[in-house]
Amino acid sequence: MEKKIFGKISNKFSLFFTILLITFLAGFFLGKNYPSYFSTLKETSKNDSQKLEENSPKNLEIKNKNPKEKSLDFSIFWEAWEVLEKNFYYKEKLNEQEMIYGAIKGMVKASGDPYTEFFKPDDAQKFLEDIQGEFGGIGAEIGKIKGTIKIIAPLKNSPAERAGLKPGDSILAVNGSSTTDLSLYEVVKKIRGKIGTKVILTILREGWEEPKDFEIVRELIKIPCLDLKIEKINHHKIAYLALYNFQQNLRNIFYKKAFEIIFENPDGIILDLRNNTGGYLNLAVEISSWFLKKGDLVVKEVFSDGEINSFKANRNGPFLNLPMVILINEGTASAAEIVAGALRDHRKIPLVGQKTFGKGSVQQVKYLSDGSFLKITIALWELPSGKRIEGEGLLPDYEIENDPNQPQKDLQLEKAKEILLQEIKTKTPFKFKNLFPSLKFDSLKIYYESHP
To answer: Domain containing 167 — which CATH number?
Structure first.
């Protein structure tokens, strides 16, 4: 095996540098793992079991006390309860437990925050399906903007994308039932169903005079992670890296693709974050670290009491000096906005495309005593520049809109290539081989290929 791996190394000196580079990269990969917070339904990980376990019902000390001992008059609640029980015609349909859950839902809804939600115990399984990366449905991330349920982005090659749904589409009804006054999760439950069955979404798009119905067949949805392409443009080798989310399985796949980029030794990178609806905060920090200096601030979490958590790049990134352009659009949200914003703030990397979604709040799960739980907004994200993402989004440096009548032409990508070539011309060429001048670089490639 050693002959196969190191056969091309001419002497022990080169072997030393090969091991040194492997150690360097391994050290980068095994850096500090940041805590994860939940910013959408899809952003809670089953691997966060320790954090969830700490808040699970069996570990909670339940105390019966008035909220903050405020002088609140709860008599009106019980008065309404008694009136309902006494006067409601269909008394046999009253379910006291559901009435309590309904009251909690109303209380949470009164917060006015679309990302703070209450989940009954029997909703747990569907919630877990969201966070495990595979589920039945149409394959679209949705959000709530000013009371309206909207498509943030359809997933790549999903039924939603094939049906023609676009970022920004408003979902007015599901199977003829209005989405008005429904929470995000309630709409998700209505859209989901048995694989192979149909769901009808009533969609209103900007520029349309009337809404239209979209009939979509539900499928088993597998969330894609990324794509990598290497191409030559005007004698320059370009790496095109598209990230579709920041979910649990991205880490290992990204590491492998990062090795491929290193071995290809490109002159520049286009990072495509279009329709990337986000994911884990720790992965946003980890991916950003590939492109930043150790200690560079990636993002801050700002809490209502003034407490601040700062998350910084944990290593000097291998791609730190590589010319780069980032693609964004209205489907770029959450963790994807953090990465785009941090890289622009520190490296002045140009953003090309359209204004991002503007999802910059942090959610955390808190279990209640009966197995139900609250998903609560606990903080806002703040970029290194001091800009907050929530409700604002990121404006591109070059605003380019693709022509919906010519879907085969990607005007945003073409502009990104044009800008990247200009960046390459103005900067000293960076080659990964220059990390260790005496290294037989192809020997590391042989080692990597023999250890998939």
So the answer is: 2.30.42.10
pLDDT along the chain (452 residues), means of 10: 40 41 41 31 36 39 47 86 93 92 92 88 66 72 85 89 93 95 85 91 95 95 87 93 90 91 94 92 94 96 95 92 96 95 97 95 87 90 96 96 80 96 82 49 45 46
Q: Are residues 304 and 160 in the same domain?
A: no
51 a catalytic residue: no
Q: What is the dihedral of CA 31, 35, 39, 40, to 10 degrees?
A: 80
- Rounded CA-CA distance 277/358 in Å is 11
Length of the chain: 452
Residues 265 and 404 in one domain: yes
Quote the pTM value. Answer: 0.72
**Does 168 reside within a domain?**
yes
Are β-strands 373-382 and 297-303 bridged in parallel, bridged antiparallel, or unpaired? antiparallel
| 334 given a catalytic annotation | yes
Read off the tokens for 240. 């095109």
| Structural domains of the chain, count | 2
Spot the catalytic one: 345, 361, 372, 443. Answer: 345
Q: What is the CATH number of the domain that holds 387?
A: 3.90.226.10
Q: Which of 42, 150, 257, 359 is catalytic?
A: 359
